[in-house]
Every structure is written in structure tokens, then in C-alpha cells.
Amino acid sequence: MTRGRARRRTLAAMTGFMTAQPLPARSKAFDLLLAGALCMTLGFLSIAQAGYGGVLAFAMLGPLWWRRSYPELVFFGVSAVAVLQWLVGIDLFPGNVGLLIALYTISVYGDVRYSRIALGVGGLGVLMATSRYWSNSDWRQQVTMMVALGAVVLGVWAFGERRRTRGLYVAQLEARAAQLERDRDRESKLAVSAERTRIAREIHDVVAHGLSIMIVQADGGLYAADQSPEAAKKALATIGDTGRASLTEMRKMLGLLKADEQRELDPNQPRPQPGVSSLPELIENVREAGLSVDYSVTGRPRDLPALLGLTAYRIVQEGLTNTLKHAGPGARTSVALDFGREMLTVVVTDDGRGGGVAPSTEPGHGLVGMHQRASVSGGTVSAGPKAGGGYEVIAKLPYNLPTGGQQ
Fold it and tell me: What is the pLDDT of residues 269-319, one digit of tens each?
């Protein structure tokens, strides 16, 4: 019982959400034209058939202008006019179609509870019409007309109910898609924030440690400068070595946005970082894994800073990894490096014939990692489907890191 109540409340809430949306001007204009056309045709036909009593047809057809804005009010108002017609004894006329249109409208746009009541009102109207307009007929004809009218009423209501259910389903899908998009944006922002926090923390440790040693050595050298020149020289040498070591370590921290999960070397020992010169070995390893890779280099190759070389290597590595995961069997991949005058351009493409490319959305991986690495080097990364099928990653990495830093 509790579950049924909860379901009804949820359905009612969703229906309220649908009907609460502002009605487009296009829909209002359509309802106005519909009501006007029905009045001009069925209204005057009703007058021709029922005389002055046919004027009631305009009271049934005119309110249809507001049928979607006020579905409950329109239905019960039209129903009241139909009851008046029954009490006065006026025969059925073409304008009675307005009652069916109002029933359909309330079943689509009205509150669920009132829609059920409207179906009951329609069933009662069938009994009233049969008892009045076919009272002198044979009982078989009465039953036939009752079944026919009941089928029409039930069919109109059921058709509207089906449209309501479909509308609710579409609204659910739209709400879910919007929520997924918000979640994706939030996860992306959290991933970028986590990477920046990690980099800031590691740089802080490196810089704080190096500066502490340098300050201590500088103070000691200052006091020993007059009495022990050798000690002062030794302090200055220590300052230089510490500064160079800290700068090297800081570059490594900027380049390593994510640590390798498995290290073949001792993690406590310094590990040489790969660069552009290591790409042939990487590509060969990927080929051995079964992926067809074309590798090309254009322009005049040059010696790159360690940070820039590492960034280019990681972007290619990430692109090839995504291709292995998502492009499907039989996909072909190309890696192209263009040494321009001011920047290195890295292009990783595949034809994605197997299943298309979908970069990882896990925080700290995929496109998030690519963008973060490129931004540290002062570059940019663009990625997305390419014309004709497949996926393309393009990274533009300037040779000189802009002053002011990226973090």
C-alpha cells in the first residue's frame, strides 16, 4: 500500500512538473485556431440541426482555446454544458465533439486524479445519453449504442493516457541526461582540482625543502665569510647544488601529473623520464600488442626541454592507450610529430572502425590528464571525433614555457 502511494505521488509530481512548464505561443495559437475552426463549422452545424439549442455547442467548443492551460476547468465546464443539454432535452449535435476533445486533453495534461474522475464522468455521460436519446429503442440497440459510446469514450481517454505516459518517459530521459551532464562536468572539475592540488602539494614540498637548506647554508656562509672563506665557498656550492636539484625535481613534478601504477625500478631511486626519443620504443610495444600504428616526423627535429618531451610522450601514450581500449579490433592508428618554428604539434588519430573512441572519464585520467599536462607546458589539447569516423587528438606545445607559469 505504501509503495502504491509513493508511486502515485511520484507520478503526480512528474505530471505537475510537465504541466507547470510555460505553454509555447505556438501551442496557444494552435488551440485558438482549433477552437475557432470548430465553432465556425460544428457550431453552426449544431444550430442548423438543433435550432436555438445548438447555441450550447459554442459553449462546448469555445473553451477549447484554454484546454491546455486549464485542462481540468475546461473539461468540467464542458461537461456541465453537456448536462444542461441533457436536462433541457436537446438532441445530440456535432458540437458534442468538444466533450471528447476536453476528455482527451485532461487525460494528457491534467492531474492524474482528475483524469481518472474525468473517465468516470465520461462513463456516466454514456449511461445518461443512452437512457435519454435511445430510451424508446429496442434493448439490443440500447446495448449496442451504450457499448459503442463507451468504447469511444474509453478509447479517447486511453489514447490521451498513452500520450501522457510517453511524455513522462521523455521528461524522465531529459532530466536524467541533464543530471548526467551535470555530474560529468562536476567530476571533470573535481579531477582538475585534484590534479592541481596534488601538483601544488608536491611542488610545495620540493621548494620548501630546497629553500630551507639554501637559507641555512646562506646564513652559515654569511657568518663564516670573514673567518673561514673555505667554509663560505662550500656553503655557496651547496646552495647551487640544492637549487639545481630542486629545480630539476620541480620540473619532474610539473610533468608527472599522474604516477605510473607499476614501477619496474626502485621507486626510491630517481627514474629517467621518457621523451620524444622514446616514442619509437613505445610505438613498437603497442604494435606488439596488436595495434597497427604509423609513425611519422616532419620538420627539423630539435632537442626539447625535459618537461616538453615528457608531455609529448605522455599525450601519445594516452592516445594510443585509448585507441587500444576503445577503437575496436582492426583499427589503424597514426602518430605524427611536426617540429614547427615555435611549437611542436602532436597528432594521434585512428579510424575507429571497431567501436569508436571514448576516452576515460575517470578523475585524473584520459582527456583530463592530457589537458592538464599540456597546460603545464603552456600548450593546448583538442580531442574529438573526426570526419569520416574515428578519433583525433591534437596537442600544440610551444618550445618555450610562457613566463608566469601555468599554475
Answer: 444 567 888 899 888 877 766 678 899 999 988 888 888 888 888 888 888
Q: How many CB atoms lie within 10 A of CB 147?
A: 12
Residue 334 phi/psi, 5-degree rounding, is -130, 140
Helices 97-109/139-224 angle, 10° precision: 30
Taking residues 110-120, what's their average pLDDT? 88
What's the total number of domains in the chain? 3
For residue 69, being part of any structural domain is answered with yes
- Let me know: does 298 contact 337? Beta carbons within 8 Å: yes
Structural domain boundaries, residue 202: 189-255
Do 129 and 6 lie in a common domain? Answer: yes
- What are the φ/ψ torsions at residue 58 (nearest 5 degrees)? -65, -30
Neighbouring-strand partners of residue 36? none
Predicted confidence (pLDDT) per residue in 359-387, tens digit: 444 434 567 777 877 887 788 999 888 87
Does any domain span residue 141? Answer: no
Question: Around Cβ 351, how many Cβ atoms within 10 Å?
Answer: 20
| Residue 200 belongs to some domain of the structure | yes
Q: What is the pLDDT of residues 42-63, one digit of tens each?
A: 888 888 887 778 888 888 888 9
